[in-house]
Hints:
Layout: E1 25-29, H1 35-39, H2 46-54, H3 58-65, H4 72-78, H5 82-86, H6 98-112, E2 126-130, H7 134-145, E3 149-153, H8 162-165, H9 174-185, E4 190-192, H10 200-207, E5 211-214, E6 220-221, E7 234-236, H11 237-243, E8 255-259, H12 263-274, E9 278-282, H13 294-302, E10 306-308, E11 311-316, E12 320-328, E13 334-344, E14 347-350, E15 354-355, E16 369-370, E17 373-374, E18 387-389, H14 400-418, H15 455-460, H16 471-478, H17 492-496, E19 502-504, E20 511-513, H18 523-527, E21 533-537
Parallel strand pairs: 2-3, 2-5, 3-4, 5-18, 7-14, 8-9, 8-14, 9-10
Antiparallel strand pairs: 1-21, 6-15, 11-12, 12-13, 16-17, 19-20
Amino acid sequence: MNKPFAITLNPGSSLANLTGSWRTERPVYVDRLPPCNSQCPAGEDIQGWLFHAESGNYEKAWKHLTKDNPFPAIMGRVCYHSCEGACNRGQLDAAVGINSVERFLGDEAIKRGWKLKKKKKESGKHVLIVGAGPSGMSAAYHLRRLGHRVTVHDAGPMLGGMMRFGIPSYRLPRDILEAEMQRVVDMGVKVELNSKIDNIQETMQAGKFDAAFLAVGAHIAKRAYIPSNEVSKVVDAVSVLRSMEGEDKPMLGRRVVVYGGGNTAIDVARTAKRMGAEPIIVYRRTRDKMPAHDFEIEEALEEGVMIRWLSTIKQAGDSNITIEKMALDASGYPQPTGEFETLEADSVVLALGQDVDLGLLEGVPGLELKEGVVQVDANMMTGKAGIFAGGDMVPSDRNITIAVGHGKKAARNIDAWLHGTTYVAPPKHQVATFDRLNTWYYADAPKTIRPMLDIIRRQSSFDEVQGGLDESNALFEARRCLSCGNCFECDNCYGVCPDNAVIKLGPGKRFEFNYDYCKGCGICVSECPCGAINMLPENT
């Protein structure tokens, strides 16, 4: 019996006809860029390491993560996780707790003694790094992975830079910081502490360095003129936080006024609270304009820190300050009202921002300095060939994750320059947007909330405020990932294809289409949960 049409064939026998001859459009498997990956300043392949984590292979997940960022335990505590703000799952129920899983992997690595590996073959090149903070140590790590000798100089007595001297221990325990710093050192990175570089050119010539990466942190506090008498105690926030790392803790008194509205102001106020003081933050604008992150403001308020919005300090006395109340004008800018108030104050802490000491660049030809930072090109090289810069030293937002990303980017470009080439970043895929997902395949799964230290202990100790996830919670959280834009071999396309045109290639190898039999109906596209299939006109 002649059966010319597929519809007349026996069940499962569609492969007897070349149904692909009917097709006007063809499905194509694609890889799209997950929004979390796209948003990460450190350039992590978040979806990639989450895949290994949700499989329960934590060491493989950690190794995948540390290809881009060597500090997951640190980042899991102090990164502001912009990736979660971009997470598509946030439009379904709540964003995946990427930061929580990252911290779990970092802590697991420390507990189990996992080590970072360097390239076995040495390049013979020697790179100088100035600054042992997040950007400098990130660059040191990546340069060692690329086979280069690395020497790090830092003016401070300990590794960590602003991670140590700008972030209180209740946010970043020092044993965690030291463990991840030491892991980089163990790769063969030479570190010279208490070693301030006064002239970069002379140091490079004396040490016969082939290239340099400048990553000096913003340790110099900005000042503001506040009329005061001789006995007034006015100090800067950087000095207060730095002194917390020494034996002699700062003597601030009981009534501490912090002037500023950034994260540093919040950190100083919360630190003072733990030292038994009664801190109050004075900020000239409203809460919604406060540069500090909202969750940090909320935690400070919970701990009993007072905040006076729309206020400026006009004068400081020996036991009080005078503030002027502000009011918003029609454009939303604060304006003085002429209304004054006196507050009791044993000390005033200025948290008005920080600058970088650029003295080491004096006399270097070709360098361009603008608004207190070094100008660099797209490859992070300064106007002087072979000298690169990143972190707080270059025009950019200042946070640890961005600094870590600068270190990685600089290392890749330094490596290319040392080899006489130019680093070319691989092209990026199109971002996988929420509208491309078929979310009905995903069950509701509420986000796991990390435990918080009780308020009483938060007010009186420097114990870590936010806890981490245990293995079961971390596994659950990792499995909330939607695998946006990338096939995770759910078999949906294979199961729904009416023409048996989807071929399974085996675990980890995904699928391919047999276009001899695919008629371009698009059912596979409609049923792909993660939006990893696209329909293209047949003539493309």
